[in-house]
Amino acid sequence: MMELKKTPLWAEHKRLGAKMVEFGGWEMPLQYTSIIEEHKTVRESAGIFDVSHMGEILVEGHDALRFVDKIITNSVSKLKNGEICYSPMCYENATIVDDLLAYRFSESKILLVVNASNTDKDYEWILSQKDNYNVNVKNLSSDYAQIAFQGPKAEQILKKISGVDLSKISFYTFTLGQINGINCIVSRTGYTGEDGFEMYFQPDAAVALWRKLIEIGGKEVKPCGLGSRDTLRFEATYMLYGNDIDDTTTPLEAGLGWTVDFTKPVFNGKEVLLKQKENGVSKRLRGFEIDGGIARHGYEIFDGEKKIGHITSGTKSPTLNRSLALGYVENEYSKIGTEVLVDVHGKKVKATVVKTPFYRGSVKSK
Fold it and tell me: Is the pLDDT of residue 1 over 80?
């Protein structure tokens, strides 16, 4: 059995009594107190997450912009230096290798932040795409620790130890500066639907920053695990790779058309996506409200006896107190208000297609 990887904060999680689980080859905290309590803290004040398991892949060189624009559907060429975009990265058939954040430092330097479980796969895939592009690709994941500080009170708490003016960091932008005297990349990004920041820095500084954030936050800040991270992102309808998107789905099927820049001359999957745009897709990711029971990943969706799709993510929303789910259905069943059936433990329960995102929080949108 392969030994699980540990982040620089692993001992802190154990010290704080976190329940640890395997996630993407890493041993990570699921929860410290309860998922509901941690979820509520992020919605009302601020929570601190160890996201050091995420991967960081650096693309440098004369053709960096052109190359990254080829491998992702969104456009880094249209970003200014210091801006970030969210994007799927696709195979030639337009299915999704991973979803990522692209940080534009300059025309010749872009940092790609990828999902933990996909880091090695992504790195090999990116290398395979280099062809004649003048770029150098490096997997720098072990050079970074990462902490996410998320919630409506994140800025007012974090500014106590920030050497940069956080109010000047707008949504999906970043700067270089010091937090608690530690050199960081500081971005106004996150995965919770709330305002907040993500900080990247050298691994040996992780414990000091983690403890300082808990100290300055007092009763308003809690360390949070993967459990609440999942319920928070689900309510905000952020995609989870391996659940809501994967190598069998395209960005248009997943409702991520806004991340596809068709004006670019070339990018992986463009021809397939153009056809889907013109002809329509056969399935769509939709939100559902479930009437009776909780729908989980993999549960089947029906119209009578006819199977028409499957659930990708589902839970009882801690904020909205409703049983909600995301899932793919055949296009004809994708209209808001359409009623379908979901097989929950052998019993078919009613579900209704509803608008997403399920919840909008304090996140600063552009």
Answer: no
CA 95 to CA 205: how far, in whole Å? 38
Is a pLDDT exceeding 80 seen at residue 106? yes
349: β partners:
342
Q: Where are the domains of the chain?
A: 10-52+144-235, 55-142, 282-354
Q: How far apart, in whole angstroms, are the C-alpha atoms of residue 312 and residue 37?
A: 24
- Domain 55-142 -> CATH class: alpha beta
Q: Which CATH class is domain 10-52+144-235?
A: alpha beta
- Rounded distance between C-alpha atoms, residue 230 and residue 195, angstroms: 16
Which residues are paired to 43 by β-bridges?
none
Q: Is the peptide bond before 357 cis (omega within 30 degrees of 0)?
A: yes
User: Is residue 292 over pLDDT 90?
Assistant: no
E strand or H helix at 29: strand 26-31
Mean pLDDT within 21-27: 96
**Are residues 41 and 219 in contact, defined by beta-carbon separation less than 8 angstroms?**
no
CB-based contacts of 344, cutoff 8 Å, min separation 6: 290, 292, 293, 294, 295, 299
Strands 221-224 and 46-50: parallel
CB 251 within 8 A of CB 260: yes
Contact 112, 102 (CB under 8 A): yes
What class does CATH assign to 282-354? mainly beta
Q: Which residues face 48 on adjacent strands? A: 149, 223
Beta carbons within 10 angstroms of residue 277's beta carbon:
13
Query: How many CA atoms, within 13 angstroms, populate the side-chain half-sphere of residue 120?
Result: 3
Closest CA to 55 of 237, 230, 200, 234: 200
Q: Give pTM, 2 decimals.
A: 0.97
